[in-house]
Amino acid sequence: GKQVNSEKRIGSVPGINGGDEFQYKTELRVVGLHSKTMHGIDYLKRGDLRLATSIVASEGYGYKDTFNSGVMFYTGEGGNVMSKEKKTEDQKLIKGNLALANSMRHQTEVRVIRGEERWDRKGKRYVYDGLYLVEQYREEREARGKLVYKFKLCRIPGQPPLT
Amino acid sequence: GKQVNSEKRIGSVPGINGGDEFQYKTELRVVGLHSKTMHGIDYLKRGDLRLATSIVASEGYGYKDTFNSGVMFYTGEGGNVMSKEKKTEDQKLIKGNLALANSMRHQTEVRVIRGEERWDRKGKRYVYDGLYLVEQYREEREARGKLVYKFKLCRIPGQPPLT
DNA sequence: TAGACGTAGA
DNA sequence: TCTACGTCTA
Questions:
Q1: How would you class A87 by CB atoms within 10 Å of its CB: exposed for 0-12, middle for 13-18, buried for 19 or more?
Q2: How many CB pairs under 8 A join A and B?
Q3: pLDDT tens by residue, B42-101
Q4: 54-113 in B: which are within 8 Å (CB) of A?
Q5: pTM here?
Q6: How many CB atoms lie within 10 A of CB B144?
Q7: Proximity of residue B36 CB to strand C below 7 A
Q8: For A22, which residue in chain B has the nearest alpha carbon?
Q9: Which residue, A1, A55, B28, B123, has fewest beta-carbon neighbours within 10 Å?
């Protein structure tokens, strides 16, 4: 089969540095940064505890996440928030959302990858941005009245600057 | 940007041999075999004429295409034939279907890639199977009463055996 | 089996 | 903007 770094881990991935760039989400999987092709939040289980390993914040899907000076606000998953046809629902504190909440409680590191639209608007590129901690999260009512989770993540100081 | 063999061409791709294997459809694009990530039929335009360059026949989508002794029957695209929720419609002789029909009229080569389910059923692998010619096509009524195109392609003799 | 911050081209 | 033989995990 494919040569995949299949061991999910929390924290840095050996050989991967901040600023490293990738072309496809499948590449993120191959190198061990993020194993989910189409999900923004990846996580692992320690016993019965889900802990986030990485998130991908991609531009261009209307999530209105913000990203400034090492502080990031990230929208949770589920509820078909970004879907157009399907009716939206309240997001639930399960799966990836639960994992991120647990990562806050246990203060475990989360890898952050930013998916940026290319200048020519043809596809995206993904840049690894280093390790973050979840500082808080809250529930919000969106304009459509549905519940969404908003996670605040802060970049851990002392990491080498992006190359 | 990405190093992509961006020149669409009809016929062999330099450096690619029958039997060569790939892991993702995006890899097919990078090496120049098939540029469409999610479409089965790729084509180019010569003036106003669309000609097929390559097709990908992937297992596991219920298309019931056949593939025996260098003779292949391939279902056209469109009409949401394989969709479950959406209503199906008649396929039309446009886009990829039109390109394949033109490839028959002009007897131009079509690269054939087979997407095989892996033994562990985790994803697919794609194997380049060499050059084919479209020998005929016909319209058929499916069980649900909708029109679909069926293309018969024959492997061009004299190609080196698959490695 | 379904859900999810995928991709490229028409 | 939409379609299309995607791709993985739970």
A1: exposed
A2: 13
A3: 999 999 999 999 999 999 888 989 999 899 999 999 998 877 667 789 999 999 999 999
A4: none
A5: 0.91
A6: 10
A7: yes
A8: B2
A9: A1
